[in-house]
Design brief:
By secondary structure, this protein is an alpha/beta fold. The protein has helices spanning about 15-25, 65-70, 110-120, 130-140, 140-155, 180-185, 190-195, 215-230, 270-275, 350-360, 385-400, 420-430, and strands at about 5-10, 30, 45, 50-55, 60, 80-85, 90, 95, 105, 175, 210, 235, 240-245, 250-255, 260, 265, 290-300, 310, 320-325, 335-345, 370-380, 405-410. Among the domains are: about 5-40 and about 210-285 and about 385-430, FAD/NAD(P)-binding domain (3-Layer(bba) Sandwich), CATH 3.50.50; about 105-195, protoporphyrinogen ix oxidase, domain 3, CATH 1.10.3110. A seven-stranded mixed sheet has the order 8-7-18-19-20-17-21. Helix 1 (about 15-25) links the parallel strand 1 (about 5-10) and strand 2 (about 30). About 40% of the residues are buried. The structure holds flavin-adenine dinucleotide. The site of flavin-adenine dinucleotide has 31 residues, from helix 1, strand 21 and helix 12.
Length: about 425
Amino acid sequence: MKKEKVIVVGAGIAGIAASYFEAIKGNEVQLIETDSVPGGLLKSDFNGKTYFDYGTHILPEVQVEEIDKFLFGDLTDEDYLKTKLISAGNFYNNRLNEKSCYVDISELSDELYKNSCLELLESDDSKRENLSDFFIHRYGKTIYEYIFKEVIIKYMGEDPQNLDYSIGYFFDMSRVLAFDQKIVDNLNQLDLYNKILGHHKRTEGVMKYYPKVGGVGALINHLVEKISKVGVHVMTGTTIKDLEVNNKNISKLITDNGCYECDRCIWSVPLIFLANLAKIQRKSIRPIFRKTMLYDFSFNKPLNTDCCFINVYEPSMQSGRITVYQNLGAKDESGFSCTVEVLSDEVPTDEEILNELMKMNLIDGQATCCFKQTREVKNGFPVLTTDYVQSSKENNHYYRDQFENVMFIGKASEDAFFMTDVLRDAYMKIISL
Ligand SMILES: Cc1cc2nc3c(=O)[nH]c(=O)nc-3n(C[C@H](O)[C@H](O)[C@H](O)COP(=O)(O)OP(=O)(O)OC[C@H]3O[C@@H](n4cnc5c(N)ncnc54)[C@H](O)[C@@H]3O)c2cc1C
């Protein structure tokens, strides 16, 4: 078969994996990344002593043999935590539940809890006009009104009625804890309840991985080394300035580092960027991203939890997901560290977030904070309003139709958001060529 010149745009996990699968087919692959380091949302910042992650932290198996072999096939027990049992918790109603990352509806008053259980048993998961509709049909009105409505407003800053139902799968909101474990085990025999009820005890899932040194970015470095060995030319710090398109085919990309000809292109960054380069004009609603801040702390004593991460649903608190590196097996020269995600238009001070950690009893009064910093996630969580989703679906469909030799994956794919979905989608597209 003829060797093709393939350019992959964006060196997040989607672009890195796509480059690998194209290169092992025998193609000549250039991977273009605008940032100075690859990884996208999977990278880690180093303060000289500790690595703090940026977006995705723990990597689960994708359960597609070839992808898992590429990602995890040669990771050693010495360098990586490998586990099927990740301990996760949640904080709600001023209580830390260390058994599950899902919210426990028995935290509601007795009467509301009783109503919730009855409504939950009548769940109908098929209606999803908007996010409020999704929650009401999935869990019932009581759970929506008394739990998730406020949680969504905290995380997204928007009324759920204006949001797309897909947000219901973010932040571990697609399941709740209800009933006791025996009833859950029985109900989970039915497909519908199996999709919406969480377990009260920790159960084994797919294998998950975390580097002992270097944060999640260490795995990215390992993968970049691996793709370089199969011939992928990785160009970081490279900005695409222009492109040449002939009969709907991209033939050349002009960058600040030089010009690159191609037979095919794999696009893993938002489609609007390609549309702008190709000077395609369409009326569109601009995407809004929820301001996403990361608060990193190191302490001289361990945090009071054995959870690897905790979802803070409590609406009166600004903290979102907390990652606790000590429980991920990370070697930490600073002591014991965590990262707190905060999704909010207002940026709280690090003292405010530190106080919340104390209120949650995650750090005791004797512990000293020996390091703190805040970082911002560029283009953090997308605020998927129903209007935006509708408009971007139409526009993206139109943009995709303007190119015949471009494959759209990752941030440019139809609707994959989570890492495993993004990888599965990219792989299926590449092997089906
Ligand atoms: C704060 C946060 C936390 C998350 N946590 C999780 C989680 O726990 N689990 C999970 O499964 N998913 C999580 N996600 C989603 C997850 O990060 C994505 O599924 C995954 O990282 C997507 O990978 P990607 O390669 O498509 O995109 P990205 O990781 O965004 O990579 C895109 C790459 O393209 C580069 N790029 C952008 N524009 C250009 C350009 N014009 N030219 C060249 N390069 C460009 C970017 O710099 C970046 O490196 C999270 C997302 C966010 C925002």
